[in-house]
Write a structure and sequence with these properties.
The complex is a heterodimer of chains A (351) and B (301).
Chain A: H1 2-32, E1 35-41, H2 46-59, E2 63-69, H3 72-81, E3 86-89, H4 95-99, E4 105-119, E5 128-129, H5 131-139, H6 148-153, E6 165-169, H7 174-186, H8 188-192, E7 206-208, H9 210-220, E8 224-229, H10 230-235, E9 242-244, E10 250-251, H11 255-264, H12 266-271, E11 290-298, H13 303-316, H14 319-327, H15 335-347
Chain B: H1 2-40, H2 43-46, E1 50-51, E2 56-57, H3 60-91, H4 94-106, H5 112-139, H6 154-178, H7 182-190, H8 195-224, H9 227-232, H10 250-257, H11 264-299
Antiparallel strand pairs in B: 1-2
The chains are: A alpha/beta (351), B mainly alpha (301).
């Protein structure tokens, strides 16, 4: 009883004081409290986004952007159900996905990636492969390393009479989507079956989980050939093959060759509102298995989130942010695309 | 008295929560799987295709992979586990029983991803360089051991699983053997039985149903194991008799493809695989219970 009375007395006498305190502090706390923006999607650019979001926090302390690498499809699903504010994907949204959206969703390119073909041969010589050979390898039509087709593009090399084992990603991934897209573009046979997708029915080979799983299979088994993300191949020093592009040049996967692929396609990219594949791009320096990665921005984002996110997007197009991308082995967007993207970001309309 | 009643209700509520969780899980899986089951019917279980691009889905290769890898693991693990348990209860000097039992049980505490890494970096090269040449060299003419030496595949997966389920089977068998009254052992020795005869008649025979229960517990763990198997089985949904060929299991395909599944039909097919896995695990458990009850009524004199 005593306690109850005490509380009653004190609270009633304190009420005016509390009111004053609240009135004076409330505006201040609102200004100080940060806007939280949640995103989810592709795992491929996750290291880059994490770095960008933490860098950007130093520039604008009022906004905190969270990102979860749940996979491109997972990100799109979460965006469509409204669990996150924005999505991220290594592939443009398809018609089925776009049809489910409550409001238009804009694709803003962020950086470029590529898929490298890695292998394990005695001495790991620099290998050159033509698109036809790559398709035949993954179709299981070429089974030995000393096959005439491989020898034809590698005249100087002594290739062993060794069985070829193909390693692919067992987990659904954007990397597989880009690789199979390339195979579908260069090989009509591949296009009819298995076709392109994040998980496909591989004609031959074994599946490893993640880039690390595939790289492990390649490293351990002499004669194995597989595909991994360029970022992964570069940071782990894996041997990678040069691939003949549409100009007939053998180009090894590198950051500059990937940017070159986007540069030669920049007009088409801009014309397609950035929703364009840059696989098998023209240009003599272009690496053929390259791709863009996008943030997916829905039009129905509330204004208190859209404004800071737009500011972030503009910052991401800056030289500084794109240099950070390069330091993490992501290929920066070519200048032309960045300028066009900046214009597009400026024109974003939110409801 | 009142507190007793409240306690009673709380316990009922908690028990009901577990039940509710199970019902919700089944309901969720059923709901998600319905579109796939509707379009493919029961043929989903017997169909062998798995092509996410063309939308052709069948569970049989995964059902095959799960059952074969688990049963194989049980065949590898059971003799070792039962032997180890017998050693610990009847043969080993008392002073080393507890430390060895502790070490075996420690195996159960290792995360499955660690088993997977061990599988990739230690077991797979061992299988490729030693097990494959041996078995393929001697028995390569049979369909069970043909094929090139990848190191990864059904046999490697079964071996990893066998190590993973050994602590479970050993621990349960040990408890079962310990629960056999010493009177039985002494009686057997008393009528002139040798040590082997004592173990056979006074320890193993009364424990048959317990041993069986231990094996089923191990099998249950093997059926649902995901990470370690995914890392070593080669992830190829194909049905092959050869133990050196890659395969895929129900748990592994869900783990591999669910996050990046494109389109509702793919998601639904994966949920249907989950449903089949649930049904298989339940059948194994119910079947085991039934057999245990039958053997118990036979052995109890």
């Amino acid at each position: 009883m005593q306690i109850k009375n005490f509380l009653k007395n004190t609270t009633s006498s304190l009420t005016p004081v509390l009111a004053v305190i609240l009135m004076t502090t409330m505006p201040a706390t609102v200004a100080k409290s940060e806007t939280l923006i949640n995103g989810a999607g592709a795992t491929f650019p996750q290291p880059l986004y994490s770095r960008w979001f933490s860098d950007y926090r130093k520039i604008d302390k009022s906004v905190a952007i969270n990102y979860q690498g749940v996979g491109s499809s997972g990100g799109i699903r979460q965006l469509l159900t409204g669990t996150v504010d924005f999505g991220a994907s290594d592939e443009p949204m398809n018609a089925e996905e776009s049809a489910k959206a409550k409001a238009p969703i804009h694709h803003i390119p962020m950086a470029l990636g590529a898929v490298a073909i890695s292998y394990n041969l005695p001495g790991n010589p620099a290998l050159k492969l033509s698109p036809e050979t790559i398709a035949d390898l993954f179709l299981g039509k070429i089974t030995k390393w000393n096959d005439a087709k491989i020898v034809a593009t590698n005249p100087g090399l002594k290739l062993p009479d060794l069985a070829i084992m193909i390693a692919y990603r067992s987990d659904g991934s954007g990397t597989t989507a880009i690789m199979t897209e390339y195979l579908s573009v260069v090989s009509p046979a591949w296009k009819t079956k298995p076709g392109q997708g994040k998980s496909v029915q591989w004609p031959v080979g074994l599946g490893g989980k993640g880039n690390a799983g595939v790289a492990g299979m390649i490293k351990q088994n002499p004669g194995t050939l597989g595909y991994v993300e360029l970022v992964y191949a570069v940071s782990n020093g894996l041997p990678v093959a040069s691939i003949k592009n549409t100009a007939g040049q053998f180009v090894s996967p590198s950051i500059s060759a990937v940017t070159a692929a986007a540069k030669t396609s920049s007009k088409a990219i801009i014309a397609a509102d950035f929703k364009l594949s840059i696989v098998n791009s023209a240009g003599k320096d272009a690496y053929p298995i390259s791709s863009m990665t996008w943030l997916l921005i829905p039009e129905n984002m509330p204004a208190n989130k859209s404004a800071p996110l737009t500011a972030f997007l503009k910052w991401a197009m800056s030289d500084e942010a794109q240099k950070t991308a390069e330091s993490l082995h992501y290929a920066p967007l070519p200048k032309e695309v960045r300028i066009a993207a900046l214009g597009r970001i400026g024109k974003l309309k939110f409801k | 008295m009142r507190s007793d009643r409240i306690f009673n209700w709380i316990l009922r509520g908690l028990a009901l929560t577990v039940l509710l969780g199970f019902v919700l899980l089944v309901w969720f899986l059923w709901n998600e799987a319905l579109p796939a089951l509707r379009s493919a019917g029961l043929g989903f279980i017997w169909s062998t295709g798995w092509d996410p691009v063309s939308g052709d889905f069948g569970a049989l290769p995964f059902l095959w992979g799960t059952l074969v890898s688990s049963i194989l693991a049980l065949m590898l693990s059971a003799p070792i586990s039962i032997g180890a348990a017998l050693f610990l209860t009847d043969i080993a000097p008392k002073s080393i029983r507890t430390p060895i039992a502790f070490l075996i049980e420690m195996l159960a505490a290792i995360p499955s991803v660690v088993y997977g890494i061990w599988g990739i970096f230690v077991l797979a090269p061992f299988v490729r360089e030693h097990v494959h040449p041996l078995l393929n060299g001697w028995l390569g003419f049979t369909p069970f051991f043909e094929g090139p030496p990848f190191g990864l595949g059904m046999l490697t997966a079964a071996m990893v699983l066998a190590v993973m389920i050994t602590p479970t089977i050993t621990a349960v068998c040990r408890e079962v053997f310990r629960s056999v009254p010493d009177l039985l052992r002494e009686a057997a020795t008393g009528i002139g039985a040798t040590r082997w005869e004592t173990i056979r008649l006074a320890v193993i025979r009364p424990s048959i149903s317990g041993i069986f229960a231990a094996m089923i517990l191990g099998l249950g763990r093997a059926l649902g194991e995901t990470m370690a198997v995914t890392m070593v089985i080669g992830n190829r949904p194909e049905i092959s008799l050869s133990l050196f060929k890659p395969a895929a299991t129900m748990a592994s395909v869900i783990a591999n493809e669910y996050a990046e599944a494109q389109g509702d039909s793919h998601l639904s097919a994966l949920a249907a695989i989950g449903l089949v896995l649930l049904v298989v695990s339940s059948l194994v458990n119910f079947g085991a219970r039934w057999i245990i009850e039958r053997t118990e009524s036979k052995t109890h004199v």
